[in-house]
Structures are given as structure tokens and as C-alpha cells.
Write a structure and sequence with these properties.
Elements lengths: L1 E4 L1 E2 L4 E8 L17 H24 L8 H14 L1 H4 L1 H9 L3 H17 L4 H4 L1 H17 L15 E5 L15 E6 L7 H9 L3 E3 L4 H4 L5 E5 L4 E4 L3 H22 L15 E6 L5 H7 L3 E6 L13 H14 L5 E4 L30 H7 L1 H14 L5 E5 L5 H20 L7 E7 L2 H5 L1 H5 L4 E4 L1 H9 L17 H16 L3 E4 L10 H6 L4 E4 L4 H9 L3 H13 L3 H13 L2
Parallel strand pairs: 3-4, 4-5, 5-6, 9-10, 9-16, 10-11, 11-12, 12-13, 13-14, 14-15, 15-16
Antiparallel strand pairs: 1-8, 2-6, 3-7, 7-8
Helix pairs in contact: 1-2, 1-7, 2-7, 4-5, 5-7, 12-14, 14-15, 22-23
Bound molecules: phosphoenolpyruvate and magnesium ion (MG).
Amino acid sequence: MIVLHGYAAGKGIAIGRAHLVVRGVSEVPQSSLKTEEIPNEIARFEAAVKTTRKQLEQLRGAIPENAPTELGAFISLHLMLLTDATLSREPIDILEEQAINAEWALKIQTERLSQQFDEIDDEYLRQRKQDMLQVAERLQRNLIGQSTELNLEATLLDDTILIAHDLSPADTVYFKDQRVEGFVTDMGGPTSHTAILGRSLNIPSVIGLGNARRLISEHEWVIVDGIGGVLIINPDELVLTEYRRRQKEYRTHQRALNKLKKNAAETLDGEQIELLANIENVDDVKAIHNLGADGIGLFRSEFLFLNRDTLPNEAEQYEIYSELVKKMKGKPLNIRTVDLGVDKNPRWFGNNSTPNAALNPALGLTGIRLCHAEPIMFRTQMRAILRAAVYGKVKIMFPMIASLSELKQSLVHLETAKKQLIERGETFGDVEIGCMIEIPSAALTVSSLLKWVDFVSIGSNDLVQYTLAVDRNDDSVSYLYQPAHPAIIKLLAHIIRTANRMGKTVSVCGEMAGDTQYTRLLLGLGLRTFSMNPSNLLSVKDAILHAHADKLESDVVKLVRNEDPDKVDVLLKKLNEAA
Ligand code: PEP
Ligand code: MG
């Protein structure tokens, strides 16, 4: 029995027999060319690029209805990478300069690009290396004349678990129609597209296992634990029995949760809790209605600004926001103005002005600071939102506010945006205004901020990072990233109490809101609005249905006062065990 650890992608437990995805480019031919052979070789390379493009376009057109909504966007990204000069033109330059065959030129260029990706500081962009390699591999296979598709049909047993070195978004197009119980890959990190697709496909999966494929034989029994991020190869009887029990338990729990979609989120003592969703793109709205969420508590609008060479203009943004508002069918939509910087740096920033070039990007020109530094971008976005607000209930929220002066400055920009619309004779709707509380200074001065806004939303992801001085993206200090640290609990208690006292809405939209470890604590602190990743909504609702809000409020008093992290840990466990 071998146990390997990777990143949990699709939740759940799969037990089955391995099917090794044998693909990859076995041997890349290498030869030198005579001058007169070069034009033909260039034509052969260009034909392979064309074939690759056609294949990806066909796959994009063949995405089944029930496939994850991100899939189309991921395949489009692969098409973009393919047509980029670095993959479609530079290998030709190498081929000409060195008079070598197209396959070898592509290999040289792929290695160069890999190295460039490895040097990128930004975690999200670095992970795009995997996408580049997937496109380059498809192109290489077309050049060599190898099959590019996953031919699964013939070989799949009922309990197949795919074991692949890597799976590209294109590979997963037909997954929903296949009997794939689970999958694992050697490649991929937590924000890779394989991980995102694993989550959306709802297939137990573990990725980033390093060397798993080489350790597994065809049809060998494996367990994929997509909850703990573990792969067990050739499990013994005892482990199999235990995992069968866990699998059954997980499935029963999921079925029970699915029945809660239409239930109101109400505590045992009759407190109505508002459950909202966090989304990153328009297509996620389907999930909102499907799960019975009360609205969108956080639309991370900056994702519209990423993966492109130019800023989206007002008309383009207006189209997107209007479509989104209409799709909400009267439920509230809270649009956060762009929160760029740190790990989200669009290409159109240019090299020198990129905030990531700063020594401490998380303390630099990010969030609202960047909006103020780019007032045209900021006001353009707000004009588009204001115009879309005629179609429904829209809120605007400012990210990363550190002080009242920043909030006031944002409100001045908002007024200017409104004036600009009035001058243009454009109609626009009423919007509620709020700001995020994710910096300790904002948390401690929240009463002054609340006088100027309709609501606040606590971004616990950043609040933990800035309060504890722990980089949220740095694995080496992740053990110090403690959302239930006494300092965080005190700040949460202060913000929630102040907002409730002032009669203003307060929500939490960081990961804490979707983690059932903290549901009872947050209810006890007086929180009545939670906004989270849609995948967590039903389990949080389940916790709410079993909670007595009034009792929790008295139960947490001791916990809030305690300043010893270990003791707080014990008190939190007790609070949760009492459920
Ligand atoms: C947060 O910081 O908690 C938050 C919701 O914002 P983001 O995760 O997008 O930084
Ligand atoms: Mg944040």
C-alpha cells in the first residue's frame, strides 16, 4: 500500500481500478535541414498550428450542456496561448535560424517558455505554465502525427479512476458522459485549471501528486480521497473497509444536503439568516438559483479585467453587468469594484507600473488604492454598474478600504460618475453602497465608516493576512494563518456588534463564511448574513438549521474574551461539539 498526498480538487471519495492515461510525446524527433527544406518545414508547422486550432475550436463547440461553466473559458485561453506569437511564430524563427526540424524547434521554445514561467513571482500566472505545456503538447502531437484525444470509451470499466500525468480542460470535455469515478494527476496546483474543473465536475480528484502515475499499474485498486487530498494505491482490506464507510457517509450527507435547497436558512430559535454567494463570472449565476441562494454577496469584478490586453470599456462592462442583474431575477447583486494588485495583475498594466513589482505588493498599490490611481478606470466601471442597476437590485462595494478618507474619496468618484451620466442624459438606478472591512485599521474604525455607507462586508481572507502578518498565499507560513486567532475574533466581534448597533447590514464574504467550523462562532457573534463560495452553501445552511442563535450568543462571550490561541481553540471545539 502506498499513500501519496496532493491537492484535493473534486470533493468526495472514489474507490476503483486505475486506468493509466498513456499519452505524452514519447520521443521528439531531431534532424537538421538543408536550406531548401526550410520553407516546407515552416508550412508543416503552420499546418499543425491550424489543425490544433481547429481541434480546440471543435472541442469548445462540443461542450455538453451539463459541463462546468468554466470549461469554455479555459479552452478559449488555450486557443489564445496557441495563437500567441510565442507558440505560433517563435518556433519558426528558431527553425529558420538553426535549420532544424519543426518538432525540435517547438521543443526548444517550450523549454524556454517553461523557464520564463518558472521565474514569474505571481502564483496565479506561474500556474498558467501548465496550460502552455498542454497546448504545446497538443501541437507537438499534431506535428509528430500522434493522436491528441483521450480515447476512453473502449477501455473504461464501471469503476474507472483515471491516472494521468496531466489533464487539460479539453480532455475533460467528455467527462460527464463517461464513467469516470475519479481522477488524479501528477501535475497541477491548487489554482490550476485542472483543480478548478475537478471541483466543478464534482468528481473526486486529487492533483499535483508528483509521481503517482509511475507507481501505479493498470487496473490496480486505488482510493481517491478528494476531501483530504490523498491517493492510496493498492489499499489493504482494513483501509478499504474504512474508506467504503467514509464514502457511504459522505454520499448520505450529500443527499441530505441536497434536500435543503428549498429550506429557509433559519436557526432553531427562528432567526432568519441570509445566505449569499461569491461569484467570479456571469455563468456562475445558474448555481445561485439552483442552490436557492438569497443573492450574490460578492461579485469579484476584477476577473473581467484579467487575461486580456486592454481594459474593458464602459459598453462592454454595461453589457455584462446588465446581463448579470437580469439573471438575478430581483435578488440582490453586490458588485465589488475592481480589486487588482498582489496576485491579480492584468497584462494591460504594463511592466513597470505593475503593482507586483513593488517590494511588498500586498502593502502597495492594490484594491481601492489602485482604483484611485486609475480614476478613469474606476469611474468607467461605476458608470457601467449604475446604468445596469435600472434592471434590478444592485449594490456597489469598495475593496481594501483602510481609512475614512479613502472611503470618502471613493464616494467622490462615485458622485462624479453619476454626474457624468447625468450630463450624458443617461438613466441609471439606485444602488446601495458599502465597503469591505479587510484591513485592521478599517475594522477598528468601522463606526466612522458605517456613517457613510449602507453596509459593510468583512473580507476575512485579507483581514487574517493583515492582522496576523501572514501572507495568505505563502505555503511556508500557512500554519500561522489562523482565522480563529483571538485577535481576529475580537475584530469580528467589534465589527459585527458595531454594525448591528447602528442598524447597518454586516456580512462576512471571506472563506470563513463558507467554513462550517466557524458557522456557530459567527452566529454567536451576531452575524446574520453570510456570503460564500456556492459549493459551501448547503453545508452552512445545515449548520444554521441545527443552531440556536440566542444560546450561541451567550456561549461565545467567554471565547471572545480569551486571548490565548490554544484555549480559544478548545473553546471553539466545545462550541461546535455542542451542536
Ligand atoms: C477577502 O479578503 O476575504 C475577500 C473576500 O476578498 P478576496 O478574497 O477577493 O481578496
Ligand atoms: Mg480581499
